[in-house]
Design a protein that fits this description.
Order of helices and strands of chain B: EEEHEEHEHHHHEHEHEEHH
Keywords (chain B): ATP-binding, Nucleotide-binding, Transport
CATH superfamily of the largest domain in chain B: P-loop containing nucleotide triphosphate hydrolases
Oligomer: heterodimer
Function (chain B): Involved in beta-(1-->2)glucan export. Transmembrane domains (TMD) form a pore in the inner membrane and the ATP-binding domain (NBD) is responsible for energy generation.
CATH class of the largest domain in chain B: Alpha Beta
Radius of gyration of chain A: 22 Å
Order of helices and strands of chain A: HHHHHHEEHHHHHHHHH
Strand content of chain A: under 5%
Number of domains of chain B: 2
Structural class of chain B: alpha/beta
Protein name (chain B): ABC transporter ATP-binding protein
Domain ABC transporter (chain B): 4-243
Helix content of chain A: 55-70%
Number of strands of chain B: 10
Largest sheet of chain B: 6 strands, mixed
InterPro entries (chain B): AAA+_ATPase, ABC_AA/LPS_Transport, ABC_transporter-like_ATP-bd, P-loop_NTPase
Shape of chain A: globular
Distance between the termini of chain A: 20 Å
Helix content of chain B: 25-40%
């Protein structure tokens, strides 16, 4: 089959007209709130440790790790419409995995433990996808969400019952992560490491989601059945994005294990999974930046509230979450980000068009 | 050898027999109309052809291959394309992206991840949009189109997959007279490369564009033949008179 020709042979004048259309119209009127927001947040995050007290920097590091975890959920739910209630499974398994590497094999080099964490998350997600997503016919949202939730619950219970994994107490006093001979303990050093990883993974995700693959995912989220009739193998698309998201959750889980210095069964459980769902819904799903904003605000608020309203802070936080979900179903981010920019466009860049021109 | 052949196709939903041994033969580059009263099984037959439903009994052969139990993506890759009865454009995406989504369906995953084909497909996207008189709206969200325009966008998307056979379920549903006329015009050129099976209530429309007709009644084929033969057929006249 020829690579150009639609199969239809339009009259030459139609082709001529198509070539002479003003390409710039594709880019006219494009609002650019998103890049500004992203840059502002990056600058704020970069200077934060310089102005914050050390114990807050430690807290902020934990929040950045959770931001990474939230990104993993936004990829599957916000972009591919997979309601995974088992993200903690990949987060926690990677956490336990690197904790065991450290305890039993004395491995703590960042160049070993982070790839190991990502790999554990990736493989675990791929295996789960094999059961839940890769049937001959597409599986329902409810089936997948209950399946992933069951996985997280089972892992939590198994870890609690396992002597090898430390039972209820988990695995305490993990040795610090090392870069060469330097030991990374909590503080500004660890903060900037996590920030760098978060930015890198954010940019990679952004690249992927703005690509033609991202367009296929947008189609998947909007109308899975329709794009199957175009010939897309929707189950494969879902399994791939699920596995990528597992790798990101795994990276986040291994960072968490070394930052906290211990792992415990809650990291695997359903509460952890639903927490990440809340971050993303609060911030706004399907935007990447919404996941980061949501995590930062929910965690920042609970930090501040728990200091100032010691007894009733969970109630205040709960009411706030509820209000956002009721009145801004697209999340806080929808206050500044319009629908058009949230969904985005996938047409070619001017450069690609120029290269394609005969 | 016909392009598509359905033989003895039955579909039973619980106690309801929607299709009862229906048969359909469509030749290469033939426009074939599927008509019949409401509830006669037209849409069910279309869905069995497209793979949205698996027939209870019977066999569907497409380009010499038994496709009866293939999934929709497998059929699409074999060269079949379906426009749904209910418009199913992707409302939040631009028209441009709707067409690109259909055009890139057979690109490899690596090509998609690195956006290697969108530069090459740009001209095809714009050509499709121009042909269907939608080029000036290319970068608006599909949700902002009128109902008739959404139907055209859907037909354009279905054709963008470069099918050998296009299945159209009520393409002129809810359209004005003028829009129907234009739809007929838009469909004519595809005859150069593609067969068409079309379900439609507007008999004038179907008479104008189809070569052959099959009439369904209560899940069975009542008659099949050229437009002239069907028009002269006594029992067909009866069911339509009975309905009128």
């Amino acid at each position: 089959m020829s690579s150009t020709g639609t199969g239809i042979q339009p009259p030459p004048r139609v082709i001529e007209a198509a070539r002479s259309l003003p390409l710039a119209s594709a880019f006219a009127g494009r609002t650019k709130v998103l890049p500004i927001l992203e840059l502002a947040l990056l600058i704020a995050a970069s200077i934060a440790p310089l102005v914050l007290r050390d114990y807050i920097t430690v807290y902020a590091t934990r929040v950045l790790i959770l931001c990474l975890f939230a990104l993993s959920f936004d990829l599957v739910w916000g972009y591919a419409g997979i309601l995974s209630l088992g993200q903690s499974l990949f987060f926690g398994m990677a956490g336990y995995g690197v904790a065991l590497l450290s305890r039993d094999f004395g491995v703590g080099s960042i160049f070993a433990v982070l790839p190991a964490g990502a790999l554990i998350g990736f493989v675990a997600a791929l295996l789960l996808a094999g059961f839940l997503l890769l049937g001959r016919h597409p599986s329902s949202v409810v089936f997948v969400s209950l399946g992933t939730m069951t996985g997280a619950y089972a892992a939590d219970r198994l870890a609690r019952g396992s002597h090898y994994l430390g039972g209820q107490n988990g695995i305490p006093s993990i040795q610090p992560m090392t870069i060469g001979s330097h030991e990374l303990s909590e503080g500004p050093g660890f903060y900037y490491l996590v920030l760098a990883i978060l930015v890198l993974i954010y940019l990679l995700s952004r690249f992927l989601l703005r690509s033609q693959f991202g367009l296929a995912l947008a189609g998947l989220r909007e109308n899975e059945q329709r794009i199957a009739f175009f010939g897309y193998k929707v189950q494969h698309l879902k399994a791939i994005i699920f596995a990528i998201s597992g790798a990101i959750a795994g990276t986040s889980g291994s960072l968490y294990a070394f930052h906290e210095g211990f792992v415990w069964p809650n990291m695997l459980g359903v509460v952890m999974s639903t927490q990440v769902v809340l971050y993303v819904l609060f911030g706004g799903s399907g935007t990447l930046i919404g996941a980061v904003v949501g995590t930062a605000i929910v965690e920042g608020l609970s930090f501040w509230l728990s200091d100032n309203y010691r007894d009733i802070w969970p109630i205040i936080l709960g009411v706030l979450l509820l209000l956002v979900i009721l009145f801004r179903p697209l999340g806080l981010i929808s206050l500044v980000l319009g629908e058009r920019e949230r969904v985005g466009r996938f047409g070619p860049s001017l450069k690609e068009k120029r290269n394609a021109a005969p | 050898m016909p392009l598509l052949e359905a033989a003895g196709v039955s579909k039973v939903f619980g106690k309801l027999t929607a299709l009862d041994g229906a048969a359909l033969t469509v030749g290469d580059r033939e426009f074939h109309g599927l008509i019949g009263p409401n509830g006669s099984g037209k849409s069910t037959l279309m869905k069995c052809l497209a793979g949205a439903l698996v027939p209870t009994r019977g066999k569907v052969t497409f380009i010499n291959t038994d496709v009866t139990s293939l999934t929709p993506p497998e059929r699409a890759r074999a060269g079949m394309s379906l426009k749904f009865q209910i418009t199913a454009v992707l409302p939040t995406l631009t028209l441009y992206d709707n067409i690109l989504l259909a055009l890139q369906a057979r690109s490899s995953l690596l090509d998609l991840a690195f956006s290697r084909t969108r530069g090459r497909l740009h001209e095809e996207v714009m050509t499709m949009l121009l042909q269907f008189r939608l080029a000036d709206r290319a970068f608006d969200a599909a949700a902002t189109l009128s109902h008739g325009q959404q139907q055209w966008l859907e037909i354009a998307m279905a054709l963008a997959c470069r099918p050998r056979l296009l299945l159209l379920d009520e393409p002129t549903g809810g359209m004005s007279l003028e829009e129907r006329r234009v739809t007929g015009e838009l469909l004519q050129p595809i005859k150069q490369h593609c067969s068409l099976v079309i379900v439609e209530h507007d008999l004038d429309f179907i008479r104008d564009i189809c070569d052959r007709l099959t009439v369904l009644d209560q899940g069975k084929v009542l008659a099949s033949g050229t437009v002239a033969e069907i028009q002269a057929n006594r029992s067909v006249q009866e069911i339509y008179l009975r309905r009128a």
